[in-house]
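The instructor's notes for this session suggest beginning with a concrete chain rather than abstract definitions. Hand out the sequence below and ask the class to guess, before any prediction is shown, which regions might be ordered.
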Amino acid sequence: TSLSRFLWSFSGSRQAKKMRLDYFKSVLTRHVGWFDLNSSTELPTHLSHGIQTVENGIGRGMSTISQNLVTFICCFVVAFIVSWELTAVICTLLPVLFLSSYIIGKV
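After discussion, reveal the predicted structure:
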């Protein structure tokens, strides 16, 4: 899990670096009048917050999602190996579990 978190965080930081570089290139191509109409601190502050959100989403979010998905699949395989009959019965209840999780997540 530590390796997964590191790799996703590394990927997120690389994406953030690329976004910052693209923003810088975009600002350099603007006409002088654009700087008169827009605040010099407002857009970079807003962009920095957005980039940080993307970096955290890729780093922490994708790491958590991939870890939980792998855990679910491994548990499912082990359950089928141990008792396929009980697992088949539980599979019929999965839609109810997913629906209740969705409803609870909305609240």
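Then share the key points. The two ends are 30 Å apart (CA to CA). The first helix runs from residue 2 to 28.
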